[in-house]
Amino acid sequence: MTTFLSNTIDTTISNSPSSICTTSIADSKVTIDGGENGSMRVDVPLVVDGRDVMREIDEMRDALLLLKRDVDMEAKYPRLKELKDAYERQLEKYKTFDTLKESK
């Protein structure tokens, strides 16, 4: 167990086959739960080698013409997902049609 009071870092590590590592840094902006169903939450910009990871993901999504999803609203209103899926299917049909038309 490691604890640094100045930065509120609390780490617990076990050497057993199901090792557990739980870390909190600062005021819960970054938390890592290494338990059986562990997770990591980062509520600050994630920059790797000078590149903002979320910005890069957003740019990829935009380049691929993917719709932004609101999973919570889709769970509340299942028809939203159906409409999104239908839109994406129709968009693919139009893209295919345009590609075939331009190849002639």
How would the blueprint of this fold be written?
Layout: E1 2-4, E2 9-13, E3 21-25, E4 30-33, E5 39-42, E6 47-48, E7 51-52, H1 53-63, H2 71-76, H3 78-102
Antiparallel strand pairs: 1-2, 2-3, 3-4, 4-5, 6-7
Describe what is shown at a glance.
The chain has 3 helices and 7 strands, in the order E-E-E-E-E-E-E-H-H-H. By secondary structure, the chain is of the alpha+beta class. Helix content is 40%, strand content 24%.
Q: Mean pLDDT, nearest integer?
A: 77
Question: How would you name the oligomeric state of the polypeptide chains in this document?
Answer: single chain
Instruction: Summarize the helix and strand pattern as letters.
Output: EEEEEEEHHH
Shape: flat
Low-confidence stretches: 1-11
* N/C terminus separation: 69 Å
- Structural class category: alpha+beta
User: Over the alpha carbons, how many angstroms does the gyration radius reach?
Assistant: 22 Å
* Fraction of residues in β-strands: 15-25%
Strand order of the largest sheet: 1-2-3-4-5
Helix content: 40-55%
Number of strands: 7
Instruction: Outline the biggest β-sheet.
Output: 5 strands, antiparallel
